[in-house]
Amino acid sequence: MDSKTAMGSEPHGSPVRPDFERIALLLQGGGALGAYQGGVYQALSEANLHPHWVAGISIGAINAAVIAGNRYLADWFAAYCPRVHVIPTAVDCQRLQPAAGRARGSGFVMGWTGTSSTLPYLAAIEPALEAVLSDVPGAALLVVADRPPSLPRLAGRDVRFLPWSVESEVEALAAMDVGLMPLADDEWTRGKCSYKMLQYMAAGVPAVVSPVGMNREVLALGESGLAAETIDDWIGALRTLAADPDRRARLGATGRTVALAHFDVPVVSRQIAAVFRGLC
Asked: Measuring CA to CA, how many Å separate 13 from each of 5, 9, 16, 43?
């Protein structure tokens, strides 16, 4: 078949699929390219191109199994791999420990930790933060990231920024009365694995989170926080926790218990090891 035939087109310019006798998919790359390979296979399938042979020429080029961090990701990969295992992201519950009890009346610190690329999710609840900072005595917002947030509506309020580091994150979590994990609801966020929420839980900090994707699943494991969808939900949840230190303590203790049982490094390590043993 010559190149003109292979790259031909219909009269209106749409490509013609060559009538190959055999189709081979050759994969090359490191051991962390499974998601990209899945996308390639999906594109071929949607174009009605089904490989007869699949070959790999480097370590990790062919995936004998897929480990997905949540059910949403697992459901997507299940169309392309018969061995899909749901294993959550691990959190180090030894590094993150509950802080000693804070004195009543010592303020109400709402905390957020993450990379600057996810700061827009925090900005989306700025009206709720403004309301709580305005009417809750001693309320403050603590942001831990690689750059300061842009929250113009909070100008003049008690907004604190701490540059992220391994050490500063532990320090910051210990200073929080409640952890925040707002999210939009889209395909990208449904694939997230609730790591912010798990960090708060490991540190014994109650969380207020958007009930999106895995966040909803984690909340179902035990009452470790409150769900908030609308701005009014966020205001109500934060005001409720600001007024009730005992409830904050109960939610934080439950979160810590859930983190230890389901997401601690030794727990997740054993699950990953079991997958590898099953491939031998």
From this structure: 14, 5, 9, 20
Q: How far apart are CA 264 and CA 32, in angstroms?
A: 22
Assigned token pair, 192: 């997230």
pLDDT, tens digit, for every residue of 222-253? 999 999 999 999 999 999 999 999 999 999 99
pLDDT tens digits along 98-109: 987 655 557 999
HEC string of the chain equals CCHHHHCCECCCCCECCCCCCCCEEEECCCCCCHHHHHHHHHHHHHCCCCCCEEEECCCCCCCCCEEECCHHHHHHHCCCCCCEEECCCCECCCCCCCCCCCCCCCCEEEEEECCHHHHHHHHCCHHHHHHHHHHCCCEEEEEEECCCCCCHHHCCCCEEEEECCHHHHHHHHHHCCEEEECCCCCHHHHCCCCHHHHHHHHCCCCEEECCCCHHHHHHHCCCCEEECCCHHHHHHHHHHHHCCHHHHHHHHHHHHHHHHHHCEHHHHHHHHHHHHHHHC
Task: Tell me if 225 sits within 8 A of 197, measured CB to CB.
Answer: yes
Q: What's the length of the chain?
A: 280
Minimal CA–CA distance to 91: which of 241, 190, 218, 187? 218
Q: How far apart are CA 15 and CA 41, in angstroms?
A: 19
pTM: 0.79
